[in-house]
Amino acid sequence: MTTNEPYDIEEPDLSIPPALPGEVEIRASADELFDLIAAELLIAAEQHVHLGNEFNLAVCGSSTIERFMERLMYDPDMRSFPWDRTHCWLLDDTKDASRFRRLSDTLVPHSGILEENLHDASAAMAAEGFEHVLLDVGSCGRVGGILPASVEEDTCVGADTINRSTFIGLVAMGSEVLELLNSLEESGDTPLPVQQIQSGSGTTKWYLSATTHEDEHAPWEE
User: Fold this and answer.
1) Could you tell me if residue 116 is inside a domain?
2) Is residue 17 in some structural domain?
3) Distance (Å, rounded) from C-alpha 215 to C-alpha 212?
4) Alpha-carbon dihedral sign for residues 61, 90, 148, 208
5) Whole-angstrom Cα distance, residue 190 to residue 212?
6) pLDDT at position 153, please?
7) Per the domain annotation, does 80 fall within a domain?
8) What DSSP element (H or E) covers 206?
9) Burial class (CB in 10 A: 0-12, 13-18, 19+), 105
């Protein structure tokens, strides 16, 4: 039996956010959440560069963060971003370096970043920490490229290095991910990767949305 009536999708109640270590920001949609993350990233970069420093941004290679980076390229509010004073580090990659190629294809032709200031996951492995880190959270408990079970072929910066960063932003979108975050206190003795990430001396911030980008931009089906 088919019907043209819309599905009744129950979104998680975010009036009481999950108990998470650090600051928590909630937005009604993934688009609004991306706007907030971009605005705060711009402020952080401009403040850092204003002090005469270069800005070190580290991102995971997930599809969510990849989409966010693409969005920065056409967002008119991000035109003043100081890409020429920014180093961008990729935190994880596959054996064939496909994530780095996609990041390079996104940033180098459009942002104004110097090509030599774009660093792959192997280079990031030697870093001691970063000014600003952006990771997403998966429903399995992964954070960025750090999985519950490691994949030997992949290159991935570990939690210890990430936790030495000044700012860590964790992007959690969708009902399944929020359900996971709400259940973390009840998890077993072995912590999930998402439970291992927290800035040791800086800021940890969670960005939450009940919807994902796919939810909001899925094509209509007959």
Assistant:
1) yes
2) no
3) 5
4) negative
5) 28
6) 73
7) yes
8) strand 203-209
9) exposed
The answer for residues whose C-beta is within 8 angstroms of residue 198's C-beta and 6 or more apart is 21, 22, 163, 168, 204
> 23 Cβ partners below 8 Å, 6+ apart?
203, 204, 205, 206
Looking at this protein, which amino acid is placed at residue 68? F
Q: Note down the domain range covering 99.
A: 23-211
Q: How do beta strands 167-173 and 203-209 pair?
A: parallel
- The token duo for 209 is 């949305």
Total structural domains within the chain: 1
Neighbours of 185 (CB within 10 A): 9
Closest by alpha carbon to 85, among 127, 134, 45? 45
Residue 90: both structure tokens together: 């990729």
Supply 139's token pair.
Answer: 């429903």
**CATH number of the domain that 98 lies in?**
3.40.50.1360
DSSP, collapsed to helix, strand or coil, labels residue 41 as: helix
Q: Rounded to an integer, what distance in angstroms lies between the CA atom of residue 40 and that of residue 81?
A: 11
Question: Is 4 within a domain?
Answer: no
pTM, two decimal places? 0.89
pLDDT digits 0-9 by tens, 18-57: 889 999 999 999 999 999 999 999 999 999 999 999 999 9
Residue tagged 């959270």 (tokens): 137
